[in-house]
């Protein structure tokens, strides 16, 4: 039985045809994957379905009836809830208050806290969360917040829940937990639309999937009838020869940076590793394994309590990022929008901001030199932008990421730490970022790569250091690594070694 | 640039359109408005606030705020007036300028190093320097009779008032620093996104101290001109200066969110205010009503601009 039918949905924004005659059919109780490149129209379609914006034409039939959605409230009343990537919880209120936000009092205009918390607890139980509903949301982890969002959706008696890229912020055990929750929800008769850039997940939890490209639906299929290549072809619109660039035999140079017995109280314990010129070193581990903390220490953004970082054979005194950058160490941070880019600034300003010294003389900027530098970076990294004056916000995720990498390149970095460089980036653009990473290593630069996508980590790294709960659990050669091997090493201790 | 793009640019830079409308309307309907004498008056009227406006532009671009400029204006004036008879005017001016820099650095360190909110810091500074101004002056205006100061405030060079020259020179310097120097670029970056700037190796601390210092210094410079203009210094001068200056900067289109704006926008904002004020005075509108009308016009100007921006963003 079909719970949802969207028929002939079209939507245009000034200058852009965002959706063209889109049909989407969702069966009751399924997990339906929705995939497509950034800008393919997934979000627009979901915004229409959740009442945030209205379609120019087309019909929505839900539970056998035609419905008209003029606001998010209409959608919630009808039984459609959406969980955005940027969670919409109020951090200073409790879990229970958040779940029943806006509906805290009944007819009596007085709060019935006991009821609120009792019902919250029941809802949380349904999603497999054991959080006390009296906890403040700001004290929760991102994974716990996700579940609160799901509980909130259930409190509206949602029949259909849309999840927008939950795996962008979750990984490992948290993601596994979410998948279990999704499975139990479908057993309760709830239907899920699951948006993701990670194809593994689609195969893992979805029953059917719909591929979108350029504002149209390319195909809807049962997941069991398709393979990876089929999906990628659908998303990219052509054969993407290989998802990853081929591993080339190469010679790595001498050791350039080493971390010795690095300790950050409560987070990282006695971690040592090194990276050589021209090498891509992967840091593998679950979220919370201390990867990001280590990266920030190398870059001088955070302090550490013990150990030493050596750069070019000497102790590195990186007490702040400026010293790291001028010495030749750069970081592409985890969250490019809030840490890597000033999104309201043009591409040009973002590209040159880490090394203004190269485009200035005695403190005075040289506009021509700057423009040429920016143009040439755009070319080398094949950043897709109408001009270097384009506002960074208007670029796609992949191209934004390339701008951040370009910023590091321009600062003449010799060691580049990339923290989750492909998060939220579509398949086609991912490959371009991989090529850039290879290119960097080819030029003799050292890359320290952090990623929650283990396939990607394995495919790119020459060597992998496996971390778990702040300790080094082992080292693997890129060619001999598999996700199982990593997990095995990571969890070796728990199994009693 | 095609005519379509010109129109588009104009639509985005509403402040200049509004300024043009107000100017033309005043020139047509307000008697005496469009005379050389009145235009000079207008420029003189806006120049004291204008000098502070450029300082404030730095602060707001770096996403900070300075409520204390009016109090610094008053304090520096009476301080100068008390000092000059003892040390001579030249030395007094130098001392006052140095003290202005120190005042700004004090606020700047609280904001930049101790990470206190600049709204609170400069609010406290406002009370403090207001009190200090009253203490230094004994609560009443002090006469200043100095030829040089009088020349600064009331004299002309090449038949243009010195105040207007000063405004012009400071405008050029500010715009040049903001557009063409590393310092200016980093001010934008710090205001645009503090976290990103820090991770890019820009010393956020240094730039926060610097912008607060520039803001306080600009108020001190303004106080020297004001004292010369009025041949006296009053401890209660400038009580509404901060709000007026901040509004001008913002009406001109420099964003309170930081990282977006310029000196030219500040000039536009100043003149929008200045012309409304000037025109209403020429029309003999009583001052209560003037304030009322100014309030309404401001809401319209800012509202229109804000609405346009939101629409632009939601389409992006």
Q: How many E strands of chain A?
A: 22
- Rg of chain B, nearest Å: 20 Å
Q: What string gives the helices and strands of chain B in order?
A: HHHHHHEHEEHHHHEHHH
Tell me how many strands of chain B there are.
4
The major β-sheet of chain A equals: 6 strands, mixed
Order of strands, widest sheet of chain A? 6-7-8-3-9-10
Q: Which stretches of chain B of 5+ consecutive residues score pLDDT under 50?
A: none
Number of helices, counting only DSSP H or I runs of 4 residues or more of chain A:
17
The N- to C-terminal Cα distance of chain A equals: 50 Å
Largest sheet of chain B: 2 strands, antiparallel
CATH architecture of the largest domain in chain A: 3-Layer(aba) Sandwich
How does the overall form of chain A come out from the CA principal axes?
Answer: globular
Strand order of the biggest β-sheet of chain B: 1-4
Walk me through the structure.
The complex is a heterodimer of chains A (497) and B (316). With 497 residues, chain A is of the alpha/beta class. Helix content of chain A is 33%, strand content 26%. In chain A, the strands form five sheets. Chain A has a six-stranded mixed sheet with strand order 6-7-8-3-9-10, sandwiched between helices. Chain A has a six-stranded mixed sheet with strand order 16-19-20-13-21-22, sandwiched between helices. Chain A is globular and about 70 Å long. By secondary structure, chain B is an all-alpha fold. Chain B has a single domain, classed as ABC transporter involved in vitamin B12 uptake, BtuC. Chain B is built from 14 helices and four strands. Chain B has a two-stranded antiparallel ribbon with strand order 1-4. In chain B, a hairpin with a 2-residue loop joins strand 2 and strand 3. In chain B, helix 5 packs antiparallel against helix 6 and helix 5 packs antiparallel against helix 11. The mean pLDDT of chain B is 91. Chains A and B meet through helix 10, helix 11 and strand 18 of A and helix 9 and helix 10 of B.
